[in-house]
Amino acid sequence: xxxxxxxxxxxxxxxxxxxxxxxxxxxxxxxxxxxxxxxxxxxxxxxxxxxxxxxxxxxxxxxxxxxxxxxxxxxxxxxxxxxxxxxxxxxxxxxxxxxxxxxxxxxxxxxxxxxxxxxxxxxxxxxxxxxxxxxxxxxxxxxxxxxxxxxxxxxxxxxxxxxxxxxxxxxxxxxxxxxxxxxxxxxxxxxxxxxxxxxxxxxxxxxxxxxxxxxxxxxxxxxxxxxxxxxxxxxxxxxxxxxxxxxxxxxxxxxxxxxxxxxxxxxxxxxxxxxxxxxxxxxxxxxxxxxxxxxxxxxxxxxxxxxxxxxxxxxxxxxxxxxxxxxxxxxxxxxxxxxxxxxxxxxxxxxxxxxxxxxxxxxxxxxxxxxxxxxxxxxxxxxxxxxx
Length: 388
Ligand code: MLT
Hints:
Elements lengths: L7 H4 L5 H14 L5 E2 L11 H11 L14 H15 L9 E4 L2 H12 L5 E6 L4 H8 L3 E6 L15 H6 E7 L11 H14 L2 E5 L22 H4 E6 L12 E5 L1 H14 L5 H13 L1 H24 L12 E5 L6 H12 L1 E2 L1 E2 L10 E5 L4 H13 L1
Helix pairs in contact: 3-11, 4-11, 5-6, 5-10, 12-14
């Protein structure tokens, strides 16, 4: 059997962070170890029945068995616009400012194909979801990383970026509530970012997948679409995955500046054939009727957050108390690197977490816990962590 040479863009690329963790986890499981999975941010709870029932009905309609609409069904796009209006007070035109995605990861990964030329710079606030950097590099763009640290509240210091760097940049990636640090961004941050983006003609790419997991009604995460001027410079990626426990369904949306949405749609038209329409119909039901469910889910994650933060504190492990997202960003105990700690933890206790440096260099010294098991298992996990 011949062995074929990979394209250069893949030759030196490390495996996708969570694929590598999955592999290590399965090796340990095969030894009979009881695994507690706090790695990938994949909700353990099921998609609620009202969404599953909508899928079931929609799947019976023959029209849904044919190729879907490229940009997403109008009814889905209207549901997205309706949800943005209700949740954020943001007005979006479903015809030009909303695009259906096969999950937000798909849209994020394709976006640079539409707007990044070889040699263009993409500013990326890091630690970060790995897809921003890899998809930039795939098209010959140059990622320039902006460190997020405890000292800057995990917000990029926009004033510290010199004007040459701003001038060289085609786009800037931000993500709040942030994965992995769980930080949120205040209105003033978005206002300043929009001002800079306008001044230097830079596209803002906001990954907003975690806005619905928050723990205080007074601190609801913002959409850049609700900030004046946001729609002039930004595209926002969102997902039904985390909000309605639908990671397996692959459905999300891009919204915002019409020319950015149109550019991404142009790429997608060539690359995929849209989202199964029965999934879109169910997605529209989720967005239209899911507010009570979201509130209930937030209650569950809040309880989990409190259990973990409390247990980590008792174990003497420092962590940030997050206002949003279902991640806990914790310091690794003294004497370990991030990778050493999570590897030892997995090998010796069966607890799967994510090494902070897997999201970029400033993540070194941290590990990420996903609140994706019930409170009893979380307590057990922290007990094992503290006994390591
Ligand atoms: C995460 O755990 O950071 C993400 O959910 C992983 C992914 O989307 O692939």
